[in-house]
Design a protein that fits this description.
There is one protein chain. This protein is mainly alpha-helical. The protein is built from two helices and no strands. It starts with a helix and ends with a helix. The model has no long low-confidence stretch (mean pLDDT about 90).
Length: about 130
């Protein structure tokens, strides 16, 4: 099979009319056209491959974004949880400190009462 089928068909007509140079130029052009078509087909395949890879990459990026959102949401939930517990702990510490101060004051009053009773008993014991 020839790589210039149209020009081969035209060869017979060229021989009859004496246009051999036109036939050779036409064959060269047809070969160039065929080579260009092969190159275009290869480029088309490359474009299809690139589009496929792009789609895969976009899907992977979407998957990573979704995973990141999931992790961010989990982190945000944990942050809220720990912030709430930190606030509760701060409130408990404040409450403990207030209770400690109350108990210190109560202890002080009890010690003063004990001291007063000791003085009173000491006076009664030593008239």
């Amino acid at each position: 099979m020839s790589d210039t089928p149209r020009m081969n068909a035209a060869q017979m007509a060229a021989m009859e009319h004496g246009t051999g140079d036109v036939w050779r130029v036409g064959c060269d052009i047809e070969r160039e056209l065929n080579a260009a078509n092969v190159e275009i087909e290869e480029k088309r395949k490359d474009v299809v491959w690139l589009a496929t890879e792009k789609a895969k990459s976009e899907n992977y990026v979407t998957e990573l974004e979704n995973r990141l959102r999931t992790l961010w949401d989990k982190l945000e939930g944990e942050r809220k949880y720990y912030m709430e517990h930190l606030q509760l702990n701060e409130e408990l510490v404040s409450e403990i400190e207030r209770e400690n101060e109350r108990l210190k004051e109560q202890n002080k009053r009890q010690n003063e009462a004990i001291d007063s009773l000791r003085e009173m008993y000491a006076k009664e014991a030593n008239p």
